[in-house]
Amino acid sequence: MGGPRASSLRELRPEDPTRIGRYRIEAKIGEGGMGAVYLGRDPDGRPVAVKVVRSALSDDRTFLARFHDEAANAQRVASFCTAQVLEHGEDLGLAYMVTEYIEGPSLLEHVTENGALSPGMLHGVAVGVAAALVAIHSAGLVHRDLKPSNVLLSISGPRVIDFGIARALDVASAHTRTGQVVGTPGWIAPEQITTQQVTPAVDVFAWGCLVAFAANGRNPFGQGPFQLMAARAVHAEPELGELPRSLAPLVQSALRKDPEQRPDARDLLLALVGGAAEADVTTELGEAWASPPPPDDPGATSRDVTARSAGPPPVTAAAPPAASPPPAASPSPAPAPVTDLAPDWPLERPAQEPKTEPAYERSTAPAAEQQFAEQQFAEQQFAAPPPVLPPVPGWTDGPGRRGGRGGLSRRTVLIASAMVGVLVAGVVAGGIYYFNRPSGEAENKAGPAAFPSAPMLVRIDNEAGWPKSCHADIGVYRPGEPAATKLIGGDRCEMLPEPSPDRSRIAFTRTGGGESEAWVMNADGSGAQKVTDIAGGRLTWSPDGERLAYMGKAGDTRQIFTITLQGHEVTQLTDDDSPKDDPMWSSTNKLVFWSEQDDVLQLYTLDPDRPRSAWTRLTKDGVRANDPEWSPDGSKIAYTRGPADRSTIWVMNADGSGGHALTTGGLHDMDPAWSADGRWLCYVRGELSDPVIRAVRADGTGDRVITPAGRTFGHPTWM
How far apart are CA 336 and CA 358, in angstroms? Predict the structure, then answer.
């Protein structure tokens, strides 16, 4: 949420918090299906929007995992044309997310009060929202609920808010019924309604609806209850009304029923900033991009606002012929949206009721048609297989509201031209960077890395108590399945599975009765054999698969040893008195591990073929570092960095250079492990007693929850 007008803010009530995390709460902005949004201040006094999840959802572990997952992803979205996500966490037993506070009305408010946008301002909104979608999609997110109330018209241009958060509610285990649609009728794509796969194409469809609405003051699929709106989105052609010549073809292509036939956000952006003729672009952008003046501007009048919406006559886009148009829709105020279908952040704002998305007036379609559509949707409940929706005859909702006409002053034109120049320059620069960045920076030339198809080895916790007590087996888990398949178990604790380089065997640690042992078994769980006694911790394979490295006791100190699987020949590699652990062997024959040799956990490497050789220190910033894991080619190391309760996953080069954060949750991230192709990492987030497995691309995008609902897994590694 951004910045509503001061008059729409609500004073805090006794049940409202006065502080969340490090933010002082000053007023309530609004509330909706997911929770409440507050105006807050950070310790430096800067305004922020603090979104607090309602308590019922805060008790849902699966929802919370997804909420933090999506919030962490949202933090990586470039802030241009979006409201930047600053932080997320939990306080007072509630989950919260903090975003940049954007001052300005929503597109819904502006169009409702002032009519359709002028061509210049319309083009600015189209460009800005397309740029925001490029940033959102390149971070691996899909907005899912793009609509006019989620676009704020700030002084610097349009800003998209609430991206990526709708998905959290979509998977809430205790609060989402089977087949529920997340989104708002009138702005969601056909494939969302028929519960097919959600891709970035749904946002492109919403972009087309949004631009048509901004140009005409009405939804291209008309008005009515959600059943009729949904049926029209699936079967009927949109009525685009009047659109500028440069926008009409793009909007038509964005609203195609088949998501595969729609352009992506990058195509939209390129066409908007460079695909039109120079004269057309000059005409489109020559007018003002300016949000309505702030409420405390004494010179602002309704005539000033109306003048901003003036412009040359637009081109009328072709619309499908109507069979028998029903009577014009009633101009009476629209009822509130159905919250089942719009579980987003504020659905309404205080002191502005009954203003809502203008797509919910009672339908004027024939009663039989409406009843049939409602019955079909009630029976199907949006569940798979997709419902067969009734074809909708032609319809019309009458002319949209247009802004009044008036001239622009010389001063207004000069200021507006400068602002439009900044907006377009920023979009073009962002587009140039996006299309020409190095291949490893977010997406390579082949596009984002597909999620690995290989299964994971996991520790399956059969009872609570980890890590004080262990009741675990080792199993194979394929992400997306409801449970793991046990490979080995018993009355002792099996943990820390590590596949051999050729994936034919698995080494693991077995504990019980105060003893720890190194074991090896075949990949299917057969042929398990004890290798040696150890001092606890994980095992790691040599590149040739003929040796294991492990932690063993030498006097009163744990040291790093190796042992051959044939002959059980033992070699001691270290002999100092510092605590150390987590040895990991690289494909280039180096061992990385952590040690407190320099009074803080730092990462070091040594040559396993030169016992008691000098170490090379990799991390030198004095921040706690552990859990090192080599990439498959030995060029990088992923590791856990930071205090245990606020740690994140970092990646650095093999020589210690180029260290950077891969995750941003700060909620005890640990135990990273690479996929076989080196393009994904899995890791664990959360309390040791209640871990959640997650996965993220090596470029930081696509972060997601892997653990199935109701299961507790740990120590993940891909086969």
Answer: 9
Phi, psi of 73 (to 5 degrees): -60, -45
Positive or negative: CA dihedral 675, 679, 680, 681: positive
- Domain ranges within the chain, ordered by starting residue: 100-319+330-436, 456-718
Beta bridge partners of 153: 158
- If you search the block for the tokens 């046990």, which residue do you land on? 486
Tokens representing 694 are: 């997650």
Give the catalytic positions in this structure: 145
CATH of 100-319+330-436 among 3.30.457.10, 1.10.510.10, 3.40.50.880, 3.40.50.450: 1.10.510.10
- The four Cα atoms 189, 193, 198, 204 give a dihedral, to 10 degrees, of 10
What pLDDT does 144 receive? 86
Taking a C-beta distance cutoff of 8 angstroms, is the pair 475, 458 a contact? yes
Distance from C-alpha of 634 to C-alpha of 654, rounded to nearest angstrom: 7
CB contact set of 447 (below 8 Å; sequence gap of 6+): none
Q: Give pLDDT, residue 626.
A: 94
Could you report the per-residue pLDDT of 563-602, keeping only the tens digit for each?
Answer: 999 999 999 999 999 999 999 999 999 999 999 998 899 9
d(C-alpha 421, C-alpha 234), whole Å: 39
**Residue 108 and residue 354: Cα distance in Å, rounded?**
13
Give the burial string for 560-597 (b: 16+ CB within 10 Å, else e): bbbbebeeeeeeebbeeeeebbbbbbbeeebbbbbbeb
pTM value > 0.70: no
Percentage of the chain exceeding pLDDT 90 = 37
Fold of 456-718: Neuraminidase (2.120.10)
Single-letter code of the amino acid located at 161: I
The two three-digit tokens of residue 192, written as one number: 């969302």
